[in-house]
Amino acid sequence: MTKRTTAKYKIDRRMGENLWGRPKSPVNRRDYGPGQHGQRRRTKLSDFGLQLRAKQKLKGYYGDLTEKQFRRIFAEAERMKGDTGENLIGLLERRLDAVVYRAKFAATIFAARQFVNHGHALVNGKRVNIPSYRVQEGDVIEVRERSKKLGMVVVAAGLPERDVPDYVEVDHNKMTATFQRTPHLDDVPYAVIMEPNLVVEYYAKN
Fold first, then answer.
1. Could you report the per-residue pLDDT of 1-10, keeping only the tens digit for each?
2. Strands 121-123 and 126-127
3. From CA 5, how far away is CA 141, in angstroms rounded?
4. Can you spell out the DSSP letters for 71-97?
C-alpha cells in the first residue's frame, strides 16, 4: 500500500491545477502555490521543469504514487511494444483502484484505494485488496454485497462532476463494472491536460 503523506488538495495547490475537477478544490479560489510566497512563484519553467511537473501531475492524479512505484510502472511501459507514453497511461488505468474510481464506486482516487484496501471490491467474484492489482480486459469488478449500501458508495455513484468513461461498462443498480479495454490517452477523462510524452522525456534524461 502506498502511504499518502500529504493532503490531496495540497497536491492541487502545488500543481496550480484542479487535477480531479473537484468543486471543493482550493485552486478554484486560489490558483497560485501555497505558502507566503506562493503568488510570486510565476516564473517560467525550464524544459526540465515542465517535464518534472508533468511527472508530478500524473503521479499525483493516481493517488500520489511513490517515485519507486511510478518508475517501476514506467519501466514496464518502456519494455512494451508501441508508444511508451500511451503504454504508461494504459498501465495506470488498469490499476484496480483506478477502475474503482472510474466506475464511480468511490468519490476520489484516494477513497478508491482505501475502498480496495478494506476488501470491499471483488474481481471476477474473488476479493482483492491490493490497489495496484492489474485488471485485465473483460474482468468484472463488483462491490461486495455487504458493502453495496455504504454511504460512500451511494454518494460516489451520484456525483455529477464526472462521467464513467466508455472503456468501463457500469451497472450501478448491481454495483458491477466490466473493464472493456485498455484506453488510449485521448479516451481518459482527465480534468486537466496530461502530457505523458514529457514524462518519457524526463526519464530519458534522468
1. 444 444 666 7
2. antiparallel
3. 28
4. HHHHHHHHHSSS-HHHHHHHHHHTBHH
